[in-house]
Structure formats: structure tokens, C-alpha cells
Amino acid sequence: MTPPSTSPGSARRSERPALGGAISQYVLKVAARCDLACDHCYVYESADQTWRGRPHCIDASTVDAAARRISEHADRHGLARVRVVLHGGEPLLAGADRLRDIVDRLRGALGDRLELSLQTNGVLLDERLCALFVEQGVRVGVSLDGDATAHDRHRRRADGRGSHAEVRQALALLRRPGFRAAYAGLLCTVDPANDPVAVYDALVAEEPPAIDFLLPHANWERPPVRPGGEGVPYARWLLAVHRRWVETGRPVRIRLLESLRATIGGGTGDTEAVGLGPAALVVIETDGAFEQVDALKTAFEGAPATGRSVFTDTVDDVAAHPQIAVRQIGLAGLCATCRACAVVRHCGGGHFAHRYRDGHFDNPSVYCADLKALIAGLLPRPPRPPGLDQDLLDDLGTGHGSSATLARLTVVQDSIVRVYLAVLGPRADRDRSPRRPGRCCASSTARTRRRSGRCSPTRSCGPGPRPRVGPAGIWAGSRVSPPRPRCGPA
Fold it and tell me: What is the pLDDT of residue 458?
């Protein structure tokens, strides 16, 4: 592992302004230990091992201090909603009584603006906990990697036993009508060694409200596994899932795929893994330390540290940390390679943690090739228009062609027009600047046209700017100059 060439608090080699913004999402570590020994865990199996020196569970004074800091920040920035995820380790190790106390303290400080969820491996979930979460309005996400073969490949106990059976029992509880309100969805870590269709079918069978797929947290110095040296196995895997999802009528929300589809359509995503939206998230450890996103633990010892604590510092202090601030300024926070890339508005440079190399994060994602291939595979493909077969071409070669040939040519032309209207029309409407009546008539030539009655200043003349299509049909987001306006008849 290459040591950081700058201090851990330094976000980039290049100097860019760091602006602290509002933080609306918090990961509150209620337990610093886990009852599983998953070999792909980014907390316990990564370069950063600071968890070893932290309290096993969060105490009441730390919860109170955290709640106070979150509330102060929400008041200062006028936030109507604040999301807190109870996390670990395994948060259920805190036990039902402690979890109830934590929730009560958070709600007492934040009131109705608090949106609570919990992420668990599901092994310890029982009826008592399900009833508590329904009562307290806590939404529960469960980690499940697919069928038994896929799930138990990584999510095992320390003695090697799998956890799939226990997780399925937990999900059966959440599917009960009385507990369904607490069921948030499933989190699945992608492994190209698993059958993507079998994994997707196993996840959908659990009837989750939503699914999210997580690329294994890796970087350039600890690269992801690529079976057989395949170039883009993660893109291939996710595209197979996407095809199955579409074939089955998209019965469930898939956060990663929906976020990418949203950016391709000109919107914004709903995950820090892709897109250019701000990553307004901070972690609070069991000892009250403010940290950056957990996935940075894959980079080096102490990588997520901010040097701030709920007992001594405000959330605004944390938000001004360079590596947090740089993730809130969109395109300007990316490296030069990413800023120049045609798909940057879709991938957003990928997950911040996946960019680490040579002591800094000012790099493209280690999954760059996979993200490009995935995005290319999600781009809309216009249907093929009816072809011009040889008989038709031979008929045209004899002269003007028969009436039947001309009728077929009309069908082909209409089909082509419909395809281009369907694919280019919505984007062209968004990108076209408002046109003012007669704006093309400002030149002396145009004034001559108006005097001759060939142009009317009361109507729009000529086309507006046209959006440019980049390589492989990807919208480049820029415009080309329109052709010279035509005013009136030629």
C-alpha cells in the first residue's frame, strides 16, 4: 500500500476551493463489532483498523451529543428533513432496549424532521425488534447477496458457517403484514463469480420495496477481482441484471440502475456511487468521532478521520473538511480526466473511495471502464427502421420507381423521422434556448428581407441551437452553432 503523499486531511493535489455545505445524512455507529466475518467487509477487512480501539457500543452521552450537533446544524441550515442510519458493525448487537433508548433520544432532539433507518445483516432480527421498528418508524435494510451459493460465498460466520438461512428467516418476518411497514429493502454486493440472473431472482423473491447493488469497495492499490482477467466484469454482470429487470417488468426499484437511467435522461441520481449530486453525509463513530464515509477505510489507516468530535466540534466544522467539501461541488471536484469525459454527468467520477491511488483521490474510479460500459449499455437504442431490400433498390435503379416502391420509401422515411423524434426530441426541447420573434432579423441583410416582405419580425425564424451527440451516441451536453437562419421562402 502506497502511503499518502499528503496528509490524510488533504483532499487533492490540485488546489480548489473547499466550501462546506449542509449535511442532511448521518450514519450513526451504534455498535463497533459484528457477529459475521464477511471477507469482503470494508470495515474489518480493510487497511483502516481503528475500529479495534473504539467502544463496542455507543453510550447515552454520545447519542445526546450527536443528536444535539445534528439538531443545531439542521436549525442553522433550515433543513426540513434529516436522515439518520443506525449502523455498525452490526447495529442489532446493541439490543432492543438500547436501540429504543437511542431512537427516543434522537427523536427528542430532532422531532418530526428525523427520518430513521437501520442497516443490518439480519441474523439477529426477531419479532420483538420488528415490532420496535414498526412502532418507532424505523425502516430496515437487510444485506443479502442472492441465493445460498452467492450469499454464503462471503457472508459467513467466523467458523465458516453461512448466514443465508438466518437472513431469509429475518426477511420472512419483515414480509408479514404487521411488520411490512419496517421493510426498506435489500443491499447486495456484486460478485462476478455469482450468476447475475439467479441473484436477481433470489432478491426479487424476497419481495423487497427496493434493491441496491454495491460495487465491492476497492481502489487502484487494492483493485477489485476480475475473474479471468476480464476487462469489465462488473458492467457485464449489472447489464445482465438490467436485462432481467426489464424483461420482468421492473417489479422493484433498483437504486443504482434507476440513478444511472435518471442521469441519462437529464435528471439526477439518488446515490453517492454515481452522478454529480452532493454527497452530504457524515459518519459518527461509537466514541463520538466525526468521520467521512466508511468506504475510505479501504485506502489507508485513518483515511476516514476528520479530527473532529461531537463533544468538541460542530457539523459545520466537519462539512468544511476538504475531502467532504470537495464531494459537494460536483464537476469542479473531479480530476481533469473525469471532467473531460463524455459520460461524467452520468457516473460522476464514480464512488469517491474508489479513486484512491498514490496517496490521493484525484483520480478516475478504479471501476472507470466498467462504469463506461454500463452507461453505454443503458443508453436507449432506437429501433431499426424497415430496410431497403435489393428488389426495391433494383426498381429505383430503373428510373423513378413504381408507385409501390415510392409508398415503401415513404414508410421508411416516416419511420426514420419517428425514431429521431423519439430519441432526440425531449433532449432537444430541454437544450434549445428560448427564441425571440424576429431575432434572426437584426442584420442589414435581414432588414432588406423585411422591407421586401420576405420575413416577419413577429414570428420565430430559423432553428434554435441543436444539442450535440457525442461518441457512441452519448449526449456531450454542449451545443453546436445552428446553420444560417432562413427567413421566409428561398
Answer: 42
What length does the chain have? 490
Contact 94, 102 (CB under 8 A): yes
> Residue 199, class by beta-carbon neighbours within 10 Å (0-12 exposed, 13-18 middle, 19+ buried)?
buried
Predicted pLDDT of residue 402: 81
Q: Is residue 294 within 8 Å of 304, Cβ to Cβ?
A: yes
The pLDDT assigned to 431 comes to 53
Query: Vertex 467, ends 464 and 469: CA angle to 5°?
Result: 150
**Is a pLDDT exceeding 60 seen at residue 326?**
yes
Question: What pLDDT is recorded for position 132?
Answer: 98
* Rounded-to-integer distance, Cα 77 and Cα 319, Å: 12
Residue range 364-381, pLDDT digits in tens: 999 999 999 999 999 887
Tens digit of pLDDT for each residue in 194-235?
999 999 999 999 999 999 999 999 999 999 999 888 899 999
CA distance 154 to 150: 8
Pseudo-torsion of CA 107, 108, 110, 116, nearest 10°?
-10
In which element (H, E) is residue 142 found?
Answer: strand 139-143
DSSP 63-105: HHHHHHHHHHHHHHHT-S-EEEEEESS-GGGG-HHHHHHHHHH
Measured between alpha carbons, how far is 70 from 42 in angstroms, rounded to an integer?
26
If DSSP codes are grouped into helix, strand and coil, which group holds residue 133? helix
* pTM, rounded to two decimals: 0.76
Task: Calculate the average pLDDT of the chain.
Answer: 84
CA distances from 3 to 7, 17, 51, 302, 323 (A): 10, 25, 20, 11, 17
Could you tell me which of 370, 374, 372, 385 has the C-alpha nearest to residue 470? 372
* Helices (H), ranges, 147-276: 148-151, 164-175, 196-205, 233-247, 255-264
Q: State the DSSP H helix or E strand holding residue 36, giving kind and residue range, or none if neither.
A: none
Strands 305-309 and 289-291: antiparallel
Rounded Cα gap, residues 439 and 428, in angstroms: 20
3-state SS class at 351: coil
DSSP label at residue 308: E
> Residue 95 and residue 55: Cα distance in Å, rounded?
15
